Amino acid sequence: MGHDVITVNASAARGHRSISDALASAVDGSVILVGPGRYQESLVLTKAVTITAEDGPGTVELLAANGPAVLLNAGSAALTGLTVSSADTDSPAVLVAAGQLSFTECKITAAAWSAVYATGKGTVLMRGCEVRNPAGAGVVITSSGGNLMDSCRLRELGTSGVVIAEHGELVMRACEVREAGGNGICLNGHGRITVTDSTVTGTAKPAVAVEQHASAVATRLAVSDVEGIGFYLASSGDVLLEDSSVTGAGAEGVFAAESCAPVLRRFQVRRTREHGYLFTGQAAGTAEDCEARDVVGVGIGVADRGTTEITRASVSSCTGAGVRLATSADPFFRRLHVAGCDGAAIEAGDGALGTFENVELERCGRNGIVVLTGARTSITGASVRGTAGAGVLVREATLSLTDCEIAESGGDGVLVDTAGEITAVRCRVRDGKGSGFLFGVGSSGTLEESEFTANNADGIGVQSELSIRIAGCLVRDNLGSGLRQTRGSTALQVLDLRSTGNATRDAYGTVSASGTATATAAPPPPQQQDRGAANDPISELNALVGLEGVKREVNSLVNLNLMAKRRVEAGLSAPPMARHLVFAGAPGTGKTTVARLYGTVLADLGVLRSGHLVEVARADLVAQVIGGTAIKTTEVFNTALGGVLFIDEAYTLAAGQGGGTGPDFGREAIDTLLKLMEDHREDVVVIAAGYSREMAEFLRSNPGMESRFSRTVEFENYSADELVTIVRTHCKRHDYRLDESAAEVLEDYFEHIPKDGTFGNGRTARKVFEVMADRQASRLAMSPEVTAVDMTVLLAADFDASMV
């Protein structure tokens, strides 16, 4: 093999018995072949040699008790297939202070602050290596130029996997960092890294941290299942992340601060907490084609004067807002898509600015756009649809909307509340459960060239006395007025309003150029006044205390019936509908009231002839003689034709003994009802009501039941605050006023009262009012002097829980 090959074998007579002996006899260019075995020694490499495990990786162990196991102090050297370990708690296993040390298929284990350390003028080339260090870091680089890690695995690390500090530089390809007690990759000082096709998993601190003046270029770097932040970016240096991802992080997927200006391209964040992305502390930079999904918190947050530009971002399935702007943030979003978030799609507050262009927001659990507390936000080209609450909400803030569509909102399409100001140009608001656009008390703004169509209340409602300008707008086919002004004011200016097909006539004042009132619309005729705000069943329904879920369900049903009617009028087939309902919930939650309002709405739409309510119970349907139940049920059913048949405690019909034989004919009543419902399906609505669990059993009691009653509306118990509000409503209706101390006592009472089967919800609230009124009368009857004010105030002393 020539004089350049030196052999080492600890157990044989031939060659050298230690690697150090072989090094002593080697010259530059020598190859040292090491036979299998354990060699307890430290190597100081002063010559350009190659040390190779003769029988392949894992057959040669090099162990050092003190100091580094390998120290390079030459121009270059190479190790192949060695297992290198150091037990010294103060020294790395491999130290390269000068020259270039190449590792191929080596395993390195240490017990100190680092396993591999390249510093000064030393560099490392690591290919196919494995590094473990339960006491500290895996690889620490402070030297510049020429450091490479290719296809390496770093795991079971006490601190960070890879640390690049001072002016250190590293190229990292196809590597894996797992189970690090610190960061997976940590850069500070002026460190630089280029990393591709690598993974970081299971770190206790941010998987990738780039701080101070460090720079990073990462392509296809995947972070997963880490306890903290995925990427922590707080550097003044260049940061480029492409085709990379974070999946399963205990905090933010990407956190950028300290004026960092990262560039993110095609980045994915999934299953993180707090935020998918958070740009704060004057962070800037750009993000393109990025995604945030399944975040327990906010999808994208921009705060503390962050100015990041974000293009083609997709946010979905977050428990908080899709996008949240705060504390003077001023980002720019272009082509944003937000879907299925529990919070608002876009939320801006705390003086945030922000510009949005071409955004699509859908199916969010609250509002589409919320602008609050000093925010001044601009949105152009937005589509907002399917929100649970208002499509757009503005309060104590300013919003500009241009070329936007807000559709199918669970509340008002656009609600401008106290101290809110809005400018809406060329916007369309349609098919909302409330008003298309509502100016609340203390709000102001301008509507230009916009359309408000097919909303369940007014097209435009104005409750404010401040300056409002409406110009060149269309309001049509709304279930309330086209434009309704509820407070007398000369500050409303209406120019070129086209109003057509609305359920009630418009009622508003117009303003001349001088600012004085010039005209007031005539009141609607008597037959339309009955459908105005005071007696409009939809408005009355939406004004009920609590019952938010019920309101959404009923408004949805109303819209479905409205569209069915319009389709028939247009010569189209009606969509399949099952009008019969189950109202499930505890007593006193407004089931009868909602049923009555629902019937009135269907009558107003022409779906039912009269919409009257017939309320019955088991005794009204079931007879005690053979053959009598069918006759009795039919007679009752016929009285409800054209309206609503409301069956209270309907589950009792299925509770008879013997399945309808003997003295109990409840099952016969059910069979009769099912046939009558089929025969008169276009001329009656049947609503079966009762406790939730019992109604579920009721539906299962007959094979045809679930097909007739295809929709169940759940009535939840009222909250303590809602019950106090109901008491206040009774007070107002009877010219009483509830003292605040009494309200606190009642709230505490309602909070702790058992919500079992005996709890009456609204009935309990009414009983509380009656008890307080009785006790107040007894209290005042004993007073020598009683004023009018005394007779209207109910005090805490007027409440006695034992009497309820």
UniProtKB/TrEMBL annotation:
Keyword match Nucleotide-binding: yes
Record key words, sorted: ATP-binding, Nucleotide-binding
Source species of the chain: Lentzea rhizosphaerae
Presence of keyword Electron transport: no
Ranges of residues in domain AAA+ ATPase: 577-719
Name the UniProt record assigns to this protein: Right-handed parallel beta-helix repeat-containing protein
Pfam families: AAA, AAA_lid_6, Beta_helix
Annotated region (Disordered), positions in chain: 507-534
